[in-house]
Amino acid sequence: MRVHCSILTKLVALVVITVALAAGTSIAPRALAADDRLNFTATTLSGAPFNGAGLQGKPAVLWFWTPWCPYCNAEAPGVSQVAAANPGVTFVGVAAHSDVEAMQNFVSKYNLNFTNLNDADGSIWARYNVPWQPAYVFYRADGTSTFVNNPTAAMPQQELSDRVAALK
Fold this sequence. Notes:
One of its GO terms (molecular function) is oxidoreductase activity. It is found in: Secreted. This protein has about 170 residues and is an alpha/beta fold. It has helices at about 1-25, 70-85, 100-110, 125, 155-165, and strands at about 40-45, 50, 60-65, 90-95, 115-120, 135-140, 145-150. It has 5 helices and 7 strands; from the N terminus they run H-E-E-E-H-E-H-E-H-E-E-H. The longest helix has 25 residues, at about 1-25.
């Protein structure tokens, strides 16, 4: 009988410790969601290296564009203004399907004073499954994101501004 009580006591103690440990882990801070799609390196249109992983845990906007796209051209002035008005949100343009000179001219024409990447081979577009331009990925600081792609119209500046405000 004594052996049985000893085993039972140990089992109860083990259950109590397990429950206590489980309760302790449930109040620990939640880890940020990591997005493996950000694990890429690229080159900016000015030739500097860029590491997408640096965007983890920060509010950010990836804007996928091409210089010959009429909707991208329509959006560019608004993107420039919204980026300038939101210094706490990192904007990164991801240019593809064109030559570097055309991409650089686009950036200059619209005064895009944020990082723009040369994705001439479309590898970053492929990571995000971007079928056409323009497209956006809006990252919140907790690592979650929203993909927006409308091939039939430019995103109105107010909608872009509202989406960016929601990231903060």
